[in-house]
Amino acid sequence: MPELFQALVVEKSETSFSVAVKPVTLEDLPAGEVIIRVSYSSVNYKDGLASIPNGNIIRSYPFIPGIDLSGHVVSSTDDRFQEGQPVFASGYGIGVSHFGGYSEYARIPAEWVMPLPEGLSLREAMIYGTAGFTAALSIQALEEHGIAPDKGKILVTGATGGVGGTAVAMLGKKGYHVVASTGKTSEEEYLKALGAEEVVSREDIMGASIKPLDKQLWQAAVDSVGGNSLAAILSKISYGGSVAASGLTGGTAVPTTVLPFILRGVNLLGIDSVACPTEKRLKVWQRMAADLKPANLDNLVYREVTLNELPQALEDILKGTIRGRVLVRLA
Questions:
Q1: Residue 223: strand, helix, or coil
Q2: 53 and 17 in contact (C-beta within 8 Å)?
Q3: Structure pTM?
Q4: Nearest-angstrom CA–CA distance, 16 and 13
Q5: Is 145:218 a contact under the CB 8 Å cutoff?
Q6: Which of 24, 115, 116, 239 could pair with 86 as two cysteines, CB 3.0-4.6 Å apart?
Q7: For residue range 126-154, what is the model confidence (pLDDT) as tens digits?
């Protein structure tokens, strides 16, 4: 590997803050058993927060963000990985406490690295990324609690985002009647192309007020929004149904009551993609390469950017002007 390579470096001092592509060396990278030549990364909301001074994601500087990466092994001191092997990594401390994927080379602890499943390319793994993995975890949890295509409609919130869009595509592939909720009603054609049967606005979900119990509309929901939206959803889930919750863009407070849980037996399922155990992680990624993989996976890609174009993409995701997934091409 070259002595110098390029990375997006975030730096902060008491008087300055910068986000810029700079040359770095292997010695600059944190410890880890596996060195990877990065092919792709992706742009996530958490990455956007890592690129601003008050994002509360990064604790020490300088830092290389990027919570996802895929590429080929350059070298490994762990026998599970060989030179040239296609791999990917996401979750754990990557892009938060450990330098991430916005670098031409990354050094990652072996326990965080996964072999690329058969049926996925390095690019497809990053079309998914943490967002797609979160969507797949949500579907897995809902299925374990009894959802099925013949049991009614399923709601997906934040449907133009990474988690929501991937969930729409996966559920559509599985034959579910998907109701996609979004604040961008102009994206109806896009969402139906992904697999949605219906597209509704955020206002349709909320209604005039949040009731403790409301009309039963959906057997289940994949919710990446949280806040008041989650409270409204819980009141409209059918008896014995479930909600898989993974996001907080709508806030962390959920103004609900115990009534959906004790009168309708509704299940609220928390979804965590960061510290998910390896065995479960492997199982779900295998499904993402097989029965959950939509034929139109590439439809989720909003655009591809280079490292030099990345700062603008990070700004855009914080502004909410991105639809679906943005890939970062490094090789």
A1: strand
A2: yes
A3: 0.94
A4: 5
A5: no
A6: 116
A7: 999 999 999 999 999 999 999 999 999 99
